Amino acid sequence: MNSWLILLSILGFVASFAISVGPVMWVLFSELFPNWIRGLAISFVGLVNSAVSFLVQLIFPWELENLGSSLTFLIYGVFAVFGLIFILMQVPETKGKSLEELEELLVK
Questions:
Q1: What is the three-class DSSP state of 73?
Q2: Which of 16, 36, 70, 95 is exposed most, by the fewest CB atoms within 10 A?
Q3: Where on the phi/psi map is residue 42: left (φ > 0), alpha (ψ -120 to 50), or beta?
Q4: Is there a contact between 42 and 30 (Cβ–Cβ < 8 Å)?
Q5: What is the overall mean pLDDT for the chain?
């Protein structure tokens, strides 16, 4: 097992998340949820985000040991591709729209 490849892959994963959905999701969710539920919804999303991060950190060593590094990172790559497809197909563009316009767009 090449330890440098694993380290670079982990750093690549963290860097990709940090420049993509990671910080943007907090702003996006503040725009997507209506005012009456925004605080509760963002708190729930934060809980889900933390739970998924915990699970990734919990099972990652097991995956490396039992599945090997290639299959482990392939799994994470597949999840990333599915996430990108979901975002491109389902998440609306919010640039230049007021919160009221977004609420009308999303509450159909």
A1: helix
A2: 95
A3: alpha
A4: yes
A5: 87
Both tokens of 6, joined, read 């694993």
32 within 8 A of 94, measured Cβ to Cβ: yes
End-to-end CA distance of the chain: 51
pTM of structure: 0.63
**Consecutive H or E run containing 16:** helix 3-18
User: Which one-letter DSSP state was computed for residue 93?
Assistant: P
Mean pLDDT of all residues in 79-88? 90
Q: Is the dihedral of CA 74, 75, 76, 82 positive or negative?
A: positive
The full set of domains in the chain, from first to last, is 3-106 (1.20.1250.20)
Cβ-proximal residues to 1 (8 Å cutoff; 6+ apart), any chain = 64, 68, 69
Helices (H), 19-95: 21-32, 38-90
